[in-house]
Structures are given as structure tokens and as C-alpha cells.
Amino acid sequence: MLDWSKHKFTFHEESELPLYHKHYSRHGSASHYTGLTSRSTSLSPTACFSNLPPTYADALPPSQEKTGLPTSEMVEGSPSKWKVAAVVIFYLVAAIVMVLANKWVLRATAIPIIFLLCQLLLATALLQIAGFLGFLEIPNVDLKIAQKLLPLISINVVGLMFNTFCLQYVDASFYQIARGLVLPFTVLASYLFLDSRPSPNILSAVVIVCVGFLGGVQSDHLHTSQLGIVLGILSSMTTSVHAIVVKRSLSVTSSPIELAYYNNLFSAIFLLPLIPFTSEIASFRALVSTGGPDLQTFLLGALITGLFGFLISLAGFLSIKITSPVTHMVSSAVRGVLQTILGTVLFGDLISANRLISIMVILGGSLAYTAIKDQENASQKFQLTSRSKASQPLLPLVSPSKIPTNLMILKTVC
């Protein structure tokens, strides 16, 4: 379990998530200090948390605290436009393929948990192979670290199941709407557990997203499974809590790749005992004995999603390291549009004018949130770096009495 008793982070009044104090920071690249958060993916093969809004860390690396220079001046240089474009395209392709391949298999089979298990196992195996070949540094399994990551793994498994079942019951083009409340729930979770009070501008962006979600659900209630909508709401809730837990978990491991490895491996282990309580074993046996196109779809889909799940881990790391939060959110918006178009072309999804408008409203609200948060974050950084250290510490540790009350509830649960 996570060691909540150690005060490894501080809270800034307007930040979405906890800020790590320099004394406890790992010695890593500058990206660890400038927003290495859960804004990219869940670091799991289904990439279902890729709609998570970007979060911002205001902490400065120790070298930057001494000089007061912006982050861009402390690193070797800003990445080229071609490199940023390549990473964005890489992320777009990986994320879109994951959703469409999942939908393709779920339309042909009725074994979503076994299919999800195959994805996790294959992604874990590919991470191991990459480590064996020397491309990545894969750690030896440490049960103490795994125990500290138990809250993250638990919420990841629950979230992946909600995501997968949601995608099974709704169209690929409606999936963007079904999970449209990720941003509002994330802001709400930050307020409840971290005492992060959103500004009026942030609340305006949240209202826009809610209007888009309600409009889409209301206009498609006759053509969309009500269970799929409920699963989408539950998926959004787990994603928002995941944003808080994964932020804390980054201090447990030495890199996002290590976190991805533990997440995939132990999520697969957690799924195994759930399968006997479903009817999927009999369905899988029938699928294997019957063979034919459905079995080929399952095997090919598992191979594709496992491969792209492995790539998603890399894409998330590169997206964090190279792209800005605004660029990442814009790429997510483009992905949502392309996903809707491809869902129509490949699966014959019904795209009404109301559904299209709802998707654009949700994406517009998300982009507005990102722009507002980025502007507020830049203003806060300017204020922080302009203060003298003698008069006020840059990132003081929070005393136990000032830890948000609701966070204690989350600590108790985890």
C-alpha cells in the first residue's frame, strides 16, 4: 500500500494534484519536475484513460530553484517541430487503433475480461522483451513496491473493466460522449480530496463539458444502451480517482516505464481470479472449439491491442516528455474526431447532427479547460519564481494539520 504517512508532497492552492517536494524527488530528467503526471495514459494497454485532462505540477527542479530560469532554458533545448509532430502522430495512431481494435473484437466475441487479460499479458511480455534487448530498463519484481502500488492497480483494474464493458455496449463514435464526464469528475475529485478550488473560468469549462455530455445522452437515448451510458459514467469516475492515485504512485517507482510494467503485470494477476465467476470460460471454450472467423478476430485483435498497448506505454512517456499539455489535449481532440469518423466508416455507426455537436462541445470544453489551466499555471509559476526565498519558501511542506480532511478518507480506503 502507498505510504500515506510520509509527507512526500505539498499542495498548491490552485494545483490539480499534489506537488512533490525536492527533497523526495527522484534524480531523473527535467520532465519529472515539470509535469510528469497522468495526463497521457493510464500506462495500461487499453489506453482507456487517455482522455484524462492534463494536470500541472508547479514544482521546480532544484537547479531551476537556484537560477529562477524557466524550464525551457534549463534543458538542452526545445524539441523540434518535426519531433513533436512525430510524437503526436504516434500517439494518435496508437490510441485510435486501440479503441477500434477493442470494438472490433467485442462486436464478434462475448469474453471481454479474457480479452483484456490477453492484452495485459502480451503488453507485459513485450515490455520484458524490450528490457531483455536493452531498449528499456525493466525492474525485477519487488513485492514491497507492488504492495505500495496496490491502490493504483486496484483502481486500474476496476477502471479498465468499466471502460471495456462500456465500449462493448456503445458505438465507437458514442464512446467519446459516454466518457465525457472525465474532466468534471477530475475537477470534483481534486476539490474533494485535495482542497483544490477551481477558478470561475475552470468551472465555466466544466459546465461546457457537462452540457455536451447531457445533450449527447439526451439526443441518443433511443439508440444507445442505458447500461453503456452508466458504465461510461462509472468509467469517468474511476478515471478521476486514478488521476490522484497515479500521481502519488509516480514517487514509488523510478520511471513511468517501471510503473507501466508493474501496472500491466499485476493488473493481469488481479483479473485472473475474476474469470471463474463469469461465464467467459465456457464461451472461450466454445469459441476455440468452433473456430472460424470469430476466433481469428479474437486472436488477431489480442495481438494488435497487446502490441499497441506496449506502444501506448512508450507513447505516453514520449507525450509527457516532449509535448506540452496544450499540444497533448489538442491531439486528444483530433483523436476524438478521427475516432468518430472511423467508427462510422468501419462499423456503420449512426452519426446524427446532435451527436456530432455534442462531441464537439465536449472537446471544446476540454480544450478551453486546458488553455485556462495552462494560463493559470504560467501565472502561478511567475509569482512563485518572483518571490524571495528569505520571505517565503517556494514549496513549503504541509504540516499534518493542513492536510485536506477528505484526503484522509482516501488514505484510509487505500
Would you kindly provide a written description of the structure presented here, covering whatever features stand out?
It is a single chain. By secondary structure, the chain is mainly alpha-helical. 65% of the residues lie in helices and 1% in strands. It contains 16 helices and two strands. It has helices spanning 62-67, 71-74, 81-108, 112-132, 143-148, 150-169, 175-178, 182-194, 200-219, 226-249, 256-271, 280-290, 292-322, 325-347, 353-386, 405-413, and strands at 9-10, 19-20. Strands 1-2 form a two-stranded antiparallel sheet. β1 (9-10) and β2 form a beta hairpin. α6 (150-169) packs across α11. It is globular, with a radius of gyration of 21 Å. Residues 4-76 and 388-399 have low confidence and may be disordered.
Tally the beta strands.
Answer: 2
Report the total helices.
16
Morphology call: globular
Average residue-wise pLDDT: 75
Q: Which structural class do the helices and strands define?
A: mainly alpha
Secondary structure elements and pairings:
Blueprint: E1 9-10, E2 19-20, H1 62-67, H2 71-74, H3 81-108, H4 112-132, H5 143-148, H6 150-169, H7 175-178, H8 182-194, H9 200-219, H10 226-249, H11 256-271, H12 280-290, H13 292-322, H14 325-347, H15 353-386, H16 405-413
Antiparallel strand pairs: 1-2
Helix pairs in contact: 3-13, 3-14, 4-11, 4-13, 6-10, 6-11, 8-10, 9-15, 14-15
